[in-house]
Design goal:
Length: 314
Amino acid sequence: MKPAAKAVGCVQLFALKGLWLSAVFRGRGMADGSPLFAGRCAVLLTKHRKEQVIRPILEKAAGFQIIVEAGFDTDQFGAFTREISRPGSQLDAARLKAEKGMELAGTEIGIASEGSFDSHPLIPFVPWNVELVLLADQKEKLEICGRCANSETNYNHRMITSLEEAEKFARKAGFPEHWLALRPDNERHQSVLKDINTWEHLKDALRWGFAKSAVGKVFLETDMRAHANPTRMRNIQKAAEDLAEKIKQQCPQCASPGFSVTGVQKGLPCEECGCLTEEIKARVFTCKRCGFSREEKAAEREHAPAGRCQYCNP
Ligand SMILES: [Zn+2]
Ligand SMILES: [Zn+2]
C-alpha cells in the first residue's frame, strides 16, 4: 500500500506542477510576446555585437528566444569601408542576412540589421543614417521591419596631411569611443587599417599610412560598424524598438503581428474651396499576411489650411 500511495502522491505533484507551469507560461504569454512567436527560436546573424541592443527588446516583445550566430562574416553582404559593395537595396541585404542566419542555425525565424549612411534626403551636407531591423518568419510567411532614420551620426571622412588634422577630426568624431579606419593616399587604396580605438594606435596608424602613401596623405574615416560606433548602436536600438512596437500591433482580422502603416492617403479638402490638397488625409495600415487593410485619420482636423491649396494659394 505504501509504495502505491507514494506513486499517487508523485503523480498529483507532477499534475500540480504542470498546472502551475502552464499558468506561468500563460501569464508570460499575456504580458510579453506574440502568440505566433512565443516559445519559438530565432537567430540573429551578427559579428558586430548587435545582440546587445536587439535581443532584450525583441525577446520581450515577441516571446521567442534569440540565439546569436557570430561565426559568419556579414561583411560579405557589404562593408562600410567599401571592400565589398552591397547587393541590391538595404532591405534586400537585411533579407539575405536573415536567410543566411536561418540556414546556419536551422531556425524558422531570422533577424537581421542593416544600416545605411548618406546625405539627408532634403538637406545637403547633413548626414543621414537609416537603420533597419528585420524579422523574417519562414514558417508563417511573414516579414516585419523596424526602422530608424535620423541625422544622429558621426559619419564623416577627411584627407589628412598632419597629426594635428587627424586629432581634430578624431575629436569631432567622438574618438576613441567611436573607432576610426585609415587608408594611405585615398579612399580606394587596397590597404586599410581598422579597429583604431586608442590615441597610441591612431598615431601608429598615421605613421604607417604616411610611410605607405605616394602623396603624403591618408584617408581617415569614421568606423560605422555597430560595435565600433556607440551612436550607430543607439539607432539600431531605436529600430529594434520600432520593430517591437510593430510586433505588438495585431491585425484585426487574422491577429497576425505587424499590422502597421504601409502608406498614406493624400487629399485633405481645402478649408476655403473644398478642393483636394496634397495634405495627408489618412494613414493606411495593412496586414502582410491576410491583406486586410484599414485607414486611420492622420490628424484631428477635417480640412487643410487654404495656404496649402493650389487654387487658393497657387
Ligand atoms: Zn491579417
Ligand atoms: Zn482652396
